[in-house]
């Protein structure tokens, strides 16, 4: 008879379904988050690249290929055939096919045709002549007009019969803007000078409106959509109108008979939807190949004559690359911190399972189970749960976040699954290398660190020191791929955790003997219990400290980004709101604005941007301010505060005065270096003069931004020069609509809140902030989970201890205090250590981190460099949360053990 053998895996899963389910949930969640991160980064980086291309002018992003008119030595019919739609269409298809990947062409916005490059003067006097100069027109025969235009009046042009270079008349359309500017109507005839022939008559058959005025079809050559007033060379020259006449593509041969020097062209608009950030280097190479490389040589075979190419798309890619390179290292720092905490939690889960099953595994080893066989069974047991959970988490991530690449996401989920599968077997193998039934107690205050542990800690110390020094020397720019630098905050936290673990037993040993003399049992017992904590409990401390440091670092980054945007917006506006006009404001406007909701303070200033010191060629903005309000505004904003009495005018200076009557002025450092402290003459924009003397020097002032300015008392200016041109408002929750209604058309209204919103200019910035916030939140969540796992590991022992102590007379209140006081040493250690480590990490790494790229859409020189600073809330809030959570969990544990009673906990034979 064959004995029945129960399968190991099935038996274990049936014996502990709750533990298996918890492990599956943890693995699925962690794998999902790990797989989501690279896809989220790809998603917002792709969105940022497409935004950069869409925001750039199509004249910059389109690749324009052009070739001169066919050779003049060719027969005329061959020259005409070369510009007809059929020939150009065949060449267009070959050009598109020759575009190197991964650059793709947007066929809906791309087009081709023929045009004149030297617009000739028209002979029609009825066309608009604002300066008496005859208008000029460019003849454009572009393919696809019917698909991109909406007819407002008349009809689209068409060609009757075969058009040649000698055709006397062709049809054309114009846009509504061109028709309005040049006074063209449907039915108008415009005469274009010819070469060896009579002028070409162009009859306007329709006026059209672009369907997508900002699209590449219309905006690659803005003249097609909007006419231009072109100045002649010289100083203050006269101007003439230049407009475009849109011919039917079949009428292109008529251009060969004009004096406009025709050319053929093919304009290729990039397909923004197919652009991916990780392909930016290849995209730049593709554009360079089309501009002057193998790609251009290949497309030159499609057209007779020399073909040239021009585009600024590579500059757009380069600008985006700089922004991406500046943001990527900060995201890597957040990811490394969150990943470290998640890895620690997975190891803790395996350690918890190994500790719970210590007796079972020791018994199996004592009964002959080999270490290799036991490890293999534990791997199989864990893999049955972890592999499907990891696959599920990865699948959810792939479906939830669209992204072109899946390799990094799958690799991240696989790494999580591998750690989860190996944590329990390796921990058990390390604990049961030798066959033993009973193990010595590993109290925190009695066990001394081994040599291997010391060597490992020293190795981590060297790595962390190298990462921090590298980041301080190089900064984050240019180090996006340096994973050691990205791990610097996490490594600093790891080293701090190991140092604190080394120091933690010292105060416990020192307090143990004095605490024994205290009255009552709760204090000495809780301290003794804290000292008997297992050495393996250092892992939760490592998770908490790493999470607290990462949260402090991430919170300080986000706070620094917000502070940089607030300061840049305040520097641009000068106050909470700004109302400014080119000329003097209406006299009644300040009173109306004061009555607007939310306005607390109002400072009137006159700004003369045309003031020229010493009658020189360069101008310096001269600000005349009401000193009472302006001094308060400067002090409140921190932009160049000054004592009011230093600038108070002593005499009115309507005209040239003696030096004794010079107005004291506040100047920028550059202005003070140029003109010194002696009185000098300033000619105002209205022609009057005023003598000023620089009395104070400040780097900034609210009224104007820039490196050159002068600020004087408005009372010292003439009545005309001192009329307010701007109002600087201070208030809470200012309403832009109310301010604009009160102002009307007299001036423009700018709000600091609106200016601040403009700085989030790219999805790359906003996406990076969201991912950073999510990474910090995930790290905090895993830290909480680590704390709960640590408490869960000691829960049975604590509950049994309370049950035994209650039989000896311990009250429920004393039991709650005992559990809380027992948990506080490590919680206080983690909170204090996290606070100090976060503070030290920020100060160590701050010199190498510049937040300007992620904070502002474009660097603002006046705002300066945005360095990383400590944020008090980011330091204190996580640390306080650890203490509160520890106390709450201990209290709940004591309450729950009181409800269950003591009989079950005191059963003989239970291992606690």
Q: In brief, what are we looking at here?
A:
With 912 residues, the protein is α+β, with helices and mostly antiparallel strands. The strands form two sheets. Strands 1, 2, 3, 4, 5, 6, 7, 8, 9, 10 and 11 form an eleven-stranded mixed beta sheet that branches. The chain has a ten-stranded mixed beta sheet with strand order 14-17-18-16-19-15-13-20-12-21. A hairpin with a 7-residue loop joins β8 and β9.
Distance between the termini: 40 Å
Biggest sheet overview: 11 strands, mixed
Derived from helix and strand composition plus strand pairing, the structural class reads alpha+beta
Name the shape in a single word: flat
How much beta, percentage-wise?
5-15%
Specify the number of helices: 29
Give the integer mean of the pLDDT values: 79
Query: Helix fraction?
Result: 40-55%
What is the β-strand count? 21
Q: What ranges have pLDDT less than 50 throughout 5 or more consecutive residues?
A: 651-657
Rg:
38 Å
């Amino acid at each position: 008879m064959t004995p029945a053998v129960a399968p190991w895996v099935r038996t274990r899963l049936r014996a502990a379904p709750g533990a298996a389910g918890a492990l599956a949930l943890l693995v699925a969640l962690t794998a999902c988050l790990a797989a989501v991160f690279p896809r989220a980064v790809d998603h917002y980086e792709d969105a940022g690249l497409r935004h950069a291309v869409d925001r750039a002018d199509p004249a910059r992003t389109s690749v324009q290929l052009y070739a001169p008119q066919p050779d003049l030595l060719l027969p005329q019919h061959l020259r005409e055939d070369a510009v007809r739609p059929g020939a150009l269409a065949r060449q267009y298809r070959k050009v598109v096919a020759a575009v190197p990947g991964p650059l793709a062409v947007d066929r809906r916005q791309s087009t081709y045709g023929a045009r004149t490059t030297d617009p000739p003067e028209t002979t029609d006097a009825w066309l608009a002549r604002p300066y008496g100069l005859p208008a000029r027109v460019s003849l454009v025969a572009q393919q696809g007009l019917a698909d991109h235009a909406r007819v407002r009046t008349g009809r689209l042009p068409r060609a009757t019969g075969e058009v040649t270079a000698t055709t006397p008349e062709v049809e054309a359309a114009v846009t509504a803007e061109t028709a309005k500017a040049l006074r063209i109507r449907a039915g108008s005839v415009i005469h274009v000078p010819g070469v060896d022939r009579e002028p070409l008559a162009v009859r306007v058959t329709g006026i059209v409106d672009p369907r997508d005025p900002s699209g590449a079809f219309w905006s690659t050559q803005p003249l097609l959509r909007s006419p231009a007033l072109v100045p002649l060379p010289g100083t203050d020259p006269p101007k003439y109108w230049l407009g475009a006449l849109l011919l039917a593509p079949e009428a292109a041969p008529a251009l060969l008979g004009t004096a406009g020097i025709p050319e053929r062209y093919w304009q290729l608009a990039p397909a923004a939807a197919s652009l991916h950030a990780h392909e930016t280097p290849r995209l730049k190479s593709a554009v360079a190949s089309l501009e002057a490389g193998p790609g251009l040589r290949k497309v030159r075979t499609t057209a007779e004559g020399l073909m040239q190419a021009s585009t600024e798309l590579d500059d757009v890619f380069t600008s985006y690359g700089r922004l991406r390179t500046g943001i990527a290292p900060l995201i890597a720092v957040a990811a490394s911190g969150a990943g470290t905490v998640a890895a620690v939690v997975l190891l803790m889960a395996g350690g918890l399972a190994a500790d719970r099953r210590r007796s079972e595994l020791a018994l199996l080893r004592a009964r002959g189970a080999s270490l290799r066989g036991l490890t293999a069974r534990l791997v199989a047991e864990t893999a049955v749960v972890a592999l499907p959970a990891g696959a599920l988490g990865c699948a959810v991530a792939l479906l939830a976040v669209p992204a072109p690449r899946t390799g990094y996401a799958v690799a991240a989920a696989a790494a999580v699954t591998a750690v989860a599968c190996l944590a329990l077997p390796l921990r058990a193998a390390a604990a049961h290398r030798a066959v033993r039934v009973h193990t010595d107690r590993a109290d925190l205050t009695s066990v001394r660190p081994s040599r291997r542990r010391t060597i490992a800690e020293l190795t981590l110390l060297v790595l962390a020191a190298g990462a921090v020094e590298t980041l301080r020397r190089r900064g984050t720019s240019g180090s996006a791929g340096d994973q050691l630098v990205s791990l610097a905050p996490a490594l600093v936290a790891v080293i701090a955790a190991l140092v604190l673990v080394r120091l933690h037993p010292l105060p416990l040993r020192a307090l143990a003997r004095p605490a024994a003399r205290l009255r009552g049992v709760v204090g000495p017992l809780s301290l003794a219990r804290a000292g008997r904590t297992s050495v393996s409990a250092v892992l939760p401390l490592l998770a908490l400290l790493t999470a607290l440091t990462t949260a402090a670092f991430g919170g300080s980054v986000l706070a620094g980004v917000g502070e940089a945007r607030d300061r840049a917006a305040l520097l641009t506006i000068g106050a909470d709101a700004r109302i400014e006009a080119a000329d003097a404001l209406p006299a009644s406007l300040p009173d109306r604005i004061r009555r607007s909701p939310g306005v607390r303070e109002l400072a009137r200033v006159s700004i003369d941007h045309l003031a020229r010191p010493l009658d020189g060629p360069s101008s310096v903005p001269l600000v005349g301010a009401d000193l009472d309000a302006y001094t308060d505004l400067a002090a409140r904003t921190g932009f160049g505060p000054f004592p009011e009495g230093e600038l108070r005018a002593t005499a009115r200076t309507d005209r040239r005065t003696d030096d004794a009557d010079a107005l004291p002025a506040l100047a920028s450092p550059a202005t003070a270096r140029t003109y010194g402290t002696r009185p000098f003459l300033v000619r105002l924009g209205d022609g009057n003069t005023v003598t000023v003397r620089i009395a104070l020097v400040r780097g900034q002032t609210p009224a104007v931004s820039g490196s050159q300015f002068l600020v004087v008392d408005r009372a010292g200016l003439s009545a005309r020069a001192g009329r307010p041109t701007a109002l600087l408002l201070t208030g809470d929750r200012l309403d832009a609509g109310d301010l604009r209604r009160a102002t009307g058309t007299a001036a423009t209204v700018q709000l600091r809140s609106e200016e601040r919103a403009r700085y989030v200019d790219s999805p790359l910035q906003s996406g990076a902030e969201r991912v950073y916030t999510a990474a910090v939140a995930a790290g905090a969540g895993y830290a909480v989970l680590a704390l709960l796992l640590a408490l869960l590991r000691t829960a049975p022992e604590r509950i049994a201890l309370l049950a035994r102590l209650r039989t000896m007379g311990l009250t429920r209140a004393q039991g709650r205090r005992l559990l809380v006081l027992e948990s506080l040493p490590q919680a206080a250690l983690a909170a204090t250590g996290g606070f100090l480590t976060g503070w030290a990490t920020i100060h160590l790494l701050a010199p190498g981190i510049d937040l300007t790229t992620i904070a502002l859409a474009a660097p603002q020189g006046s705002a300066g460099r945005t360095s990383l600073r400590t944020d008090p809330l980011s330091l204190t809030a996580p640390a306080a949360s650890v203490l509160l959570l520890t106390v709450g969990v201990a209290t709940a544990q004591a309450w729950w053990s009181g409800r269950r009673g003591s009989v079950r906990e005191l059963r003989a034979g239970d291992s606690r």
